[in-house]
Specification:
Strand content: 5-15%
Mean pLDDT: 89
Helix content: over 70%
Largest sheet: 2 strands, antiparallel
Structural class: mainly alpha
Distance between the termini: 34 Å
Low-confidence stretches: none
Shape: globular
Length: about 180
């Protein structure tokens, strides 16, 4: 597979497949976590396919039009550090989603939990491979929103809501300062 396509698929696969989890849950029930772990593992394998190019000293880069009328494109750049971060993110994603299978109660809203995990992982992969400031800001804010939803997963607990709000204010504020500084 073309390494640029591997990067693009690795970034967007969690975003696309996260929305299928409620439907998949009706079939797989408690095993939905294994499906999510399989998605994360697929991203790991896609990221690993870029290693030979970066080891040869050839960064993988490319772009495609996102909003041509506004002059915006999606730009991705994969060098050694980006691939290392992407491998860590997707590898830890596999571990967390696999571990969560035994940790999460059957009474929990499992599709929602795994959706937010996959969206968080996709946003982090986007940060790893992004090659422009606007795109970096968008992926950063997506990590802010998804981490807010994960930290505040147990909405009925005041400490969960407090921690989520605090984390959101810090990360969103940091994203705004990063954007202003660029």
């Amino acid at each position: 597979m073309d390494p640029f396509n591997a990067i693009v698929i690795a970034v967007f696969l969690p975003f696309i497949l996260a929305w299928t989890l409620p439907v998949l849950y009706s079939v797989f029930k408690q095993r939905i976590g294994w499906i999510s772990a399989l998605i994360a593992f697929t991203c790991f394998v896609l990221n690993a396919q870029v290693i030979p190019y970066t080891m040869a000293g050839t960064p993988v880069k490319g772009s495609f039009n996102w909003l041509p009328a506004a002059g915006l494109s999606l730009d991705f750049y994969g060098d050694g550090m980006a691939v290392l971060l992407a491998l860590i993110v997707s590898g830890v994603g596999v571990i967390i989603m696999s571990y969560s299978n035994g940790y999460m109660s059957t009474k929990e809203d499992l599709p929602r939990y795994y959706q937010w995990l996959l969206l968080f992982m996709g946003a982090m992969l986007g940060i790893a491979y992004t090659d422009n400031t606007i795109q970096m800001f968008i992926f950063w804010e997506l990590t802010s929103i998804t981490s807010f939803m994960l930290i505040g997963y147990w909405r009925e607990r005041p400490e969960s809501v407090y921690g989520a709000t605090k984390a959101f204010l810090i990360t969103a504020g940091g994203g705004l300062l990063m954007f202003a500084g660029s």
